[in-house]
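Quick one: structure tokens for this chain, please?
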Amino acid sequence: MAKLLNQFRSFYTKNYPNDMETQIEYFAIFGGLGWSVDTSKSIKTLIEELILQNFSSLNEKIEQLTLGEANNKRLLRALAIGDRRIFSAFNRAGLNNGNGGAALNYLEEKGLVSIEYSREEPARSLHPDRKLKRSIARHRISHKVLFTQPFIRFWFYFIAPYTKDILEKNYTNLFNSLENKQNSYTSLVYEELSEILLNYHIRDSLVISSGSYWDAKIEIDILTITDKEEVFIAECKWTNHQVNMSELHKLRDKCIKLDIQPTQIALFSKRGFSKELLSKQGKDLALYSADDFAALVKNVVESECIEEFI
């Protein structure tokens, strides 16, 4: 997360967007590229100017990073568009544990991805003399994968699938895909940045475990535990509508199912919150909008940041 925060700060000091919503949205695409980005221009215009007009040189760099290996590129594509779970990414990419594992090891060693380890406990029968149900016994705990730079994920999410079209100067399918999927795409970067902001606000405590939580039935965007046995639970919504009470109820239900009593629940929203939800804000409930991410770039100067397209 320290690397992503450094990239986020570098993007800000290099480009100084007008607001944090713009910062997050543009960073999710161009973060880690290390280029100046005129955030007064539309994302579509910038993709044409910075990426499509430089497609050959960028594609050559991607080929170098992946060694031009089909397995490496297929896995990156599967990780970019999927649920980030290693086994499902292997299946999506048409890889097995052998060649998929080799590809993943290379990508991790190259610094393109990092592993987010599951905190799910292996299932155990309540009765030692009985076997687990087959459906439970067959469940495999799967770790997840994160991209270390937003731009690499953007490339394999939106650019790589349309290579043939791009070479023919046909960008219609690419931009249709972007229009339909941009919010969904940005959600993961927003979730990662939200974890950073949450942990920034509880920095007086020592964080001993933090990240997303998932098991066979439940997923939670952020679960942070401190040395004081404080538990912070959070959900993140990068959508064009306000978050309302239903999201709080859903998150509380997840806590009950996991037998968790959170010290605080936090909700992160691109478009803010309903009046009813705002009235509930307090010690037990923290609400964060896009503007709150300004805390991550406060008093940061460009000389302190290093951002590089590896």
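The first strand starts at residue 113 and ends at 116.
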